[in-house]
Write the structure tokens for this entry.
Amino acid sequence: MTRARTPRPHEVDEARRDDRLLRAFRDRGRDPGWRTRGLCQTVDPETFFPAPSESAEAAVALCRTCPVRGSCLAWALEAGDLHGVWGGTTARERRAMAVVWRSGELDQAPQVAGAGARVPGQGGPVDSSPPSMDRRELLRLVNAG
Ligand code: SF4
């Protein structure tokens, strides 16, 4: 298994300006029930785990229309190095976003300042789900409930 490479500076710069990241920061922790409304529940979960040689565009396109994409991406960024497509992003894109996410600089970003800002001293995961849980496990839980 090859180890994921560290994001390059220009990738982190792009992530910094990415609307998907800003939306995730704004929506983090706002909607604990986001999983039950994800559009991915209507399709084969494998769509969201394309092989390295396959395009992720089908999954990314569905995410673009998903009402909970901000919460979904926030969860994935908090969870860490997950595989597959979450919140309309690929794992590679999220690695660059994670650099910005963990830096704390979004707390200062004027685009998102005051929008659901994290309460000092109450940081941490956006919800209580185990970070190691992937979408297959989430879907099993949702469908079982
Ligand atoms: S992966 Fe996230 S953003 Fe994409 S459809 Fe599922 S819940 Fe929505």
Q: What stands out?
A: The pocket of iron/sulfur cluster is lined by residues 38-40, 48, 62-63, 66, 68-69, 72, 85-88 (CB under 6 Å).
